[in-house]
Amino acid sequence: MAIMTNPTSSWADGPLLAFDLETTGTDTGTDRIVTGTLISIVPGREPQVRTWLADPGVEIPAEAAEVHGISTDHAREHGRPAAEVAAEIAEALTDTWHPTRPLCVFNAPFDLSLLDSELRRHHGRKLEVTGPVVDPRCLDKRFDRYRKGKRTLGALCEHYRVRLDSAHDATADALACARLAWRLAKTHPDEIGTRALAALHEDQTGWHRDQQHDFAGFLDRQADRATDTAEADGLRARAADVRARAEHWPLALVAEPA
Q1: Which of 68, 109, 241, 245 has its CA 20 to 30 A from that of 208?
Q2: pTM for this predicted structure
Q3: Residue 148 CB burial class (10 angstroms; 0-12, 13-18, ≥19)
Q4: Which is a Pfam family this sequence falls into (predicted)?
Q5: What is the spatial distance between Cα 37 and Cα 14, in angstroms, rounded to a whole number?
Q6: Is pLDDT above 70 for 54?
């Protein structure tokens, strides 16, 4: 990844990419893409938006459809085969994502890992990380560590007074993520805004690891206080899984996709 030569410049003022997926659920190894958006943002130009609607090849659970508004019937009638959609998204990323153009993704280990699983499921290949990632969720947890409340996209947009047009619409979420990245860069210019992109990417790798280990420690403490043996064992098993996944960012460590 390239290093910025102008110490006063900010990557947030240059070209950005923003990415978001809506899916059948929250398991990166077994759930599938329903919709996707990739937005190219260049100062002084209208954002270029690419969107995809997939037929995931499985039933979309009612609770997921309630969140993003896409039913199984709608996806089957209007969506394209999941294999085509996954390949096109990966190709679009390869064409536009490079060392001097960051990809803004909220909770990157989820979206990028799920796309990686889809590529391995349908094409037997992995997602290539070809540039730096900027994850506002990771950044917020680093620089406002002790703030109470949720760390969802909607909660962060409200906290930082960033516009979110329609939650759980992939295009609206991607735009809001880019706005959050810009706001965080301006709020923390030395640590984020003027940080070389390669260094910021590596910073987030370490911050994510620390955050996950802190969460695993919390789970262990909950297990120590549990009076039910099965509950305690479950908490400790979850803590071990969290620690194992902590070493992998922005792609999570997942089993072979089902």
Answers
A1: 68
A2: 0.91
A3: exposed
A4: RNase_T
A5: 20
A6: yes
